[in-house]
Structure prediction request, 474 residues.
Amino acid sequence: MAANSADILLPIPAKVSLSGTFFPVASLRSFAVDKEFTGVIAELQNLFHTLALDVKKADDDHADFTITKTALPAGAWKMTVSPEGVKASAGDITGATYAANALAQMLFAATITGDPQAGLDGAEIEDHPRFTLRSFHLDCARHFQSKDVVKKFLRILSLCRINYFHWHLVDSQGWRYQSRVAGKLSATGVSSYGQYSREDLSEITNFAHDLGITVIPEVDVPGHSAMLLKHYPQFSCDPQNPGEEFCIGKPETMTFLKEIFAELMELFPDSPCIHIGGDEALTTHWEKCPVCQQAMADKGLKNMRDLENKFMVELSRFIVSQGRTPIIWGTSSGQTYPPDTMIQCWLDIREPLKIAPHGNKIIYSVHSSLYFDYPANLDEPWESWMFELSEKGVYMTDPYIIWPEKVKDVIIGTEACLWTETIPQHRIFAKLFPRIFAYSECAWSLPERKSWHSFNQRKSLLEAAGYIDYVKGL
Ligand code: ACM
Ligand code: ZN
Prediction:
């Protein structure tokens, strides 16, 4: 494998044809991008600065490196490397970002030896994603992650072709955004350990957008809500002992949550999907609550799981009425949701098979393959609920693991999750690397192009060339 060819790209592109020609790096003096792709300029300038290349921004198509706009599907990009220069094209900002990133990898690989004659091999590259949704989740509730950490996280995601950021903003341990509806959670002393202001949210969302990343905000209900219920115990079953679950029998709970979600949608005006949680609520409080019992009887339901399902369906109808798509964590209790609700499968590999007949679109996040808080090996700290998740284990992940013909039309993508019960912000990046590159190739590349051997070769070469440190922001 040549050190300076398009063969080193990671994740591996759909098609690479080497042409036998050569573009000298020393000839790279100017770059220009379509006016819709100005979001990539800062990363390109950072790249040229890092590699000590004097490449100036130009305004015309005759620059040595160009990214023009053409009719390509979302995320797809093409590139021709020839003695005349490097001509890339994309249909949207995500594709443009990935083309710029491919150039970065080729330049790092080409300049590895410091040879003044270094060059990029001539090539035709065509690339497009396997999945339309390639997502990464970050839990900023258990441990708060500062604005700068989230921005760095997003930059790394975009360099790994990840185009959605699932932002777990609240949980029992913390309510991490300033809310007018839940104003008591912004009081001094509550937010002192970390909370995003409204300005922070839009700054981070705009930053993500410029990297080709769409934000999916989550407020997790009806469980995981101890922090909110401590300050608003009237929405729990037992205000003396509010616990983690909202009372799902009180009509005022639904009224309050609709206000919470209306505000969330106002804070994230460009988020097409809103995550409403739905995982791990205990029924214990509901079983003992006369209001929940009455609600269950009035609705003619058999058990509290059915009442929870009615509750979540009503909330999902509210999200749909506002023109957004609701996402809910899959449950093990067999309840279903209207087909316009997306389900995030995390419990086990058979979950998609159970959901597929109902027509819901699925995000594949099965914990044993995609939970990055799990230890990469047992020398790391770990908890009893975790599995070992090695880099190889991530690389082997395939959302079509069983009966692909039954699930491939409904699985729209995959998401890796970084929960932070045990991860303060100084450990976030140690949990990402090196496994994120394996995830990137799973989410992006066509399965027939994947090879553990080739992946390792490409990664080792890029590591030796300093590219991995560049991704880490070192
Ligand atoms: C989850 O891991 N509780 C979705
Ligand atoms: Zn109740």
Notes: The chain has a mean pLDDT of 95. The longest strand covers residues 15-24. The chain has 17 helices and 17 strands. Residues 29 and 92 are 25 Å apart (CA to CA).
